[in-house]
User: Fold these one by one.
Assistant:
Number 1:
Amino acid sequence: MLLEVKNLTVAYDTAMIINNVSISVDSGELVSLVGPNGAGKSTFLRTITGLVRWERETLKGTRYGDITIEGTVTFKGENIEKLPAHDIVKRGLIHCPERRRPFTEMTVLENLMAGAYLIKDHKTFRDNLEAVYHIFPVLKDRSKQVSGTLSGGEQQMLAIGRSLMVKPLLLCIDEPSTGLAPQVKQLVFNKIKDIQALGMTILLVEQDVSMTFTMADRNYILSHGKIVTQGTSAELLKDETVRQSYLGL
């Protein structure tokens, strides 16, 4: 198993955000974590990639209160739940954040270079850059353009491309469809499927269930911080209670 999360619990002061969540992702899979706004999906991703732990250390002793993290996160057989975020990145677990977050005053190429900060060999950098350009030709066309002037869809492609610059073993993508028109959303999802077809393992967090279920090998449904059910898309869509209560279908 590439990633195994067991009994993960995250609380901000007395507010429980993630409650005893366990999931697994095997090499080559595209696994989805779906659920409504406020379910805890983004907090889950931020926790397994070390960002919530960084936040806890940063806020320690301030008026913002304490953050409690419990449970285990195993990646490639190693427990990583206590590692800092930059060490988790070095191991190949990469977080593509919600709302894209490009460095808006930098060009497309400079953003991609920032994503490759761990790459010291020039040939490896060029090879990885060409691989990203092959998946997203528009980024090559826009390489000298300031990223803040890109469309929402182009910024989302840039965010994913930046995450791919270190050739992750597991790419965690947070809400890639946010704010995108249906046609652009479909294009972005097609690109994600293309990336998986190249052998990339993906953990996809999304609200758009109908589109996500056409792509994912397995799915977890998160509601109020808990996994309420899991299974293949076909299995979950057969359950009328799941369809109506959690999927809005």
Number 2:
Amino acid sequence: MPGQRFSDAERRRLGGFPAQVSHEDLVTYYTLTRSDRAKVNQYPDDAGRLGFALQLGTLRYLGFCPDDLGAAPAEMVRFLAEQLKVPPEGLSVYGRRAQTRTDHFLAVQDHLGYRKARR
């Protein structure tokens, strides 16, 4: 019987946000382009725009998006909130409707050109 490759703590760390993000990484992965802004601004409320933008930058940065967006480093949320001119606290109400985060993540994938693998 094979042994467990990662401990529960290691799995949580690998499946979540890093504790800190360098300024260079914020600028590289979380600066919103004109196209990003056009997509983000399709959402009517501050929390929706901020949550969408966070998923967008995080998919670029990590290659996936952790389940708990509320665990994103504060500097990451502030960096996006400043660009969007929305309060960073708005993230706390993002995704109250269960399907919102999923719908936004699918839209993020489409925006970034992600496609399902085919034969």
Number 3:
Amino acid sequence: MEQSIDIMYDETEMAPARFIGFVGEHGRFDLAIITTNNFFGKKIVHCLQTGRSAILNAEEAEQADYIQTTFQVSEEEASELSLFLSANL
């Protein structure tokens, strides 16, 4: 059985990556924040501990409930992560 694949985009770029680890009162986070020309100015945030990722801007990072769901963390951890990301994206 033959499958058809439609490639939507295929780009290569040298993208700056910031690797940062921090400890809050409720959790530890090891992140990679990747700045790219794609995604309309948003950054790729990748949790190195869990492998979960999101494409975010600072305004979206302020939504602790979205951060909690996306990164599968507790409410307290989401609040800390949201605070950090909103100040660093």
Number 4:
Amino acid sequence: MKSILIDDETDALEALHLLLMETCPEVVIAGKFTDPEKGLAAIRNMKPDLVFLDIEMPVMNGFQLLEALEIPAFSLVFVTAYDQFAVKAFRFSAVDYLLKPVDPVELRKAVDKAADKHRVGKSQLDWLKQSLTQQDSRRFDKIALPSAQGYTFVELTDVMYCESDSSYTKFFLANGDTYLITKSLGEVEEMLAGTDFFRIHKQFLVNMRHIRSYIRGDGGYVIMPDKVNIPVSRIKKEEFTERFTRF
């Protein structure tokens, strides 16, 4: 896979290059850049299959670099010294998020994920970036749910609610279908910011348009079309009722 490495720290860049040579010989390094603007130009010109990207960089950080691209078609691996950007990073559908110093085993896993994604063809990143360039960039019509075979594209209006299952999230659809994806509920919530979804409880993210009724009480609960009762946490009650009255 043709790859580009972008990190403003020269030592970190060289260390990653050496580690890739040792553990992932199929990765061909097409370019290494400490200047993110030059890295951006290289991505546009070289059209890599895989990009390893730092986040905290001067002039242009990793997120700003991605926003400057027009529907990128590469797989993305963030390599950073900070863990607080993980949720935002996965909103860009990165295949992995590696912390420095990079562990060889984790790097091998990240490259394998990228290879799988490359074989599938159209990446979830493509889909999300396309959605973000629609007339209303805060609204999505569909979401791409990753699976072992590729992606299942689901209309957001068909999703009733999402339930946290540790580091996984389960999607419940109006037709009775369910999908389990390897992303946390926090990542899903971040990805769906600005839509009709609301985090009413630490374990649940609900589509407000599917709520059948709200039962008051100590926090209370909502009743969904499949007759499932979902609790409203005390700290979310005021914000929820304020939003609920808009519908």
